[in-house]
Automatic annotation (TrEMBL):
<keyword id="KW-0148">Chlorophyll</keyword>
<dbReference type="Pfam" id="PF00124">
    <property type="entry name" value="Photo_RC"/>
</dbReference>
<dbReference type="InterPro" id="IPR000484">
    <property type="entry name" value="Photo_RC_L/M"/>
</dbReference>
<keyword id="KW-0479">Metal-binding</keyword>
<keyword id="KW-0007">Acetylation</keyword>
<dbReference type="GO" id="GO:0016491">
    <property type="term" value="F:oxidoreductase activity"/>
</dbReference>
<keyword id="KW-0813">Transport</keyword>
<protein>
    <submittedName>
        <fullName>Photosystem II protein D2</fullName>
    </submittedName>
</protein>
<keyword id="KW-0812">Transmembrane</keyword>
<keyword id="KW-0472">Membrane</keyword>
<dbReference type="GO" id="GO:0009535">
    <property type="term" value="C:chloroplast thylakoid membrane"/>
</dbReference>
<feature type="transmembrane region" description="Helical">
    <location>
        <begin position="36"/>
        <end position="60"/>
    </location>
</feature>
<dbReference type="GO" id="GO:0009772">
    <property type="term" value="P:photosynthetic electron transport in photosystem II"/>
</dbReference>
<keyword id="KW-0604">Photosystem II</keyword>
<keyword id="KW-0150">Chloroplast</keyword>
<dbReference type="GO" id="GO:0009523">
    <property type="term" value="C:photosystem II"/>
</dbReference>
<keyword id="KW-0560">Oxidoreductase</keyword>
């Protein structure tokens, strides 16, 4: 009778290789096997729970509070009063912060000696 599983007395993996792998991905090195095994269990279980929460969020339509449509309506209707949420304030802050990076050529200041004079082509 053949068994597909048997108890192995020797380890089937190298602790050094496992530590190198996890430290390259997550920057974490483990001092003993218990922490390594806990982390090997913790990472996939956490990923499964996060994806389950994402599915529940989609199922309950938690994206129904769409603040982008509120901004569009406010742009079209001058009498529409927007209620400023943290999302809108965050978006406005990001837009103001990224405005300089959106068009970097407008903010460049060159010294006179590098600018072309006359027929430089």
């Amino acid at each position: 009778m053949r068994h597909s599983w048997c108890y192995r007395r020797k380890e089937t993996y190298s602790m050094v290789t496992a530590n190198r792998f996890w430290s390259q991905i997550f920057g974490v090195a483990f001092s003993n096997k218990r922490w390594l095994h806990f982390f090997m269990l913790f990472v996939p279980v956490t990923g499964l729970w996060m994806s389950a929460l994402g599915v529940v969020g989609l199922a309950l339509n938690l994206r129904a509070y769409d603040f982008v449509s509120q901004e569009i309506r406010a742009a079209e209707d001058p009498e529409f009063e927007t209620f400023y949420t943290k999302n809108i304030l965050l978006n406005e802050g990001i837009r103001a912060w990224m405005a300089a990076q959106d068009q970097p050529h407008e903010n460049l200041i060159f010294p006179e000696e590098v600018l072309p004079r006359g027929n430089a082509l």
